[in-house]
Amino acid sequence: MFSQTVEYALRAVVFLADHAPTACTTDQISTATQVPKPYLSKVLQNLGRNNIVRSQRGIGGGVTLVKMPNELTILEVVNAVEPIERIHTCPLGLKSHGTQLCPLHQRMDEALEMVEKSFKQTTVAEMLSEPGGSHPLCENPKAVAYKQVKKRQ
Amino acid sequence: MFSQTVEYALRAVVFLADHAPTACTTDQISTATQVPKPYLSKVLQNLGRNNIVRSQRGIGGGVTLVKMPNELTILEVVNAVEPIERIHTCPLGLKSHGTQLCPLHQRMDEALEMVEKSFKQTTVAEMLSEPGGSHPLCENPKAVAYKQVKKRQ
DNA sequence: TTGAAAATGGACATTGACATCCTGTTTTGC
DNA sequence: GCAAAACAGGATGTCAATGTCCATTTTCAA
User: Fold this and answer.
1) Domain region containing A74
2) Cβ <8 Å between A136 and B11
3) Does the predicted model carry a pTM greater than 0.85?
4) Rounded to an integer, what distance in angstroms lies between the CA atom of residue A142 and that of residue B11?
5) Which of A19, B46, B106, B113 has its CA 20 to 30 A from that of A150?
């Protein structure tokens, strides 16, 4: 139900948040997120156009998040690459359903609304600080501490 | 986020429920639901293989629901044509995430779970008897009464 | 100044969703 | 039995999502 591109974009953003504010290269992100590099670069370009990430060419360059991870919701990321299209008018074009959807499309739109709300309430920072779960993109929980040390070298 | 095919399948099933237990031809369904007939026939075939509908060839034939509308959930319909794939294991294949998803995939799976639950709780019959909304696939609420009369001619 | 690192953009391949068409098969009514 | 109604299934076409490749541009540092 979620496209591959959405999954890839979220992985990339989580990786960037995990390393913020250090810039990361497409190569690094690709390796860690297991997203094919050429395609990842397209996804990142897309995120750039939508002002989710900023990129810097040349040596020492790379990609960084525009916002702080605790101010960036996953809804913003999803909507940048593949907007959640709520159902506003009757898909069949029935005029009498214009303002009031029929129960079928009401239910479908409700489902979309639930997902939208859930994603709007979740920041990227929360993905990294969750107590119970394992750490995104990392094989071993121990790796978190390791990265924290390594980050500012 | 929902595929065209899912939308088509739901329209067809709602139409069939609205006319149950009378059989409807692909032509009738296609006209009412605005689904292209050749493609609709594929969708119906698919629903047939998944035991959601039963079809009868020949003069006077057509398609009918296998279950009563109040016993058929829209989740069953959706899962027949395009199963909601919950996230059970880490998409990156990280072994340590095997049983416990990382927060990212937890959130994504939660969204899927919400949709799944919502669809599981909704029967096709509910689509037709909703008090407030307009009637599915019908331009005018009055048309409901008309069809009720016409149904058993 | 020059070379290496890195993103950018355009062109191209692949795949699956969506859609159409045609032929065959089953069923009914005469 | 025959003709018409209706679904079944295979072959094919189209397009967007996904994925790849390469030349170009930008940036930094030696």
Assistant:
1) 4-85+123-150
2) no
3) yes
4) 51
5) B106
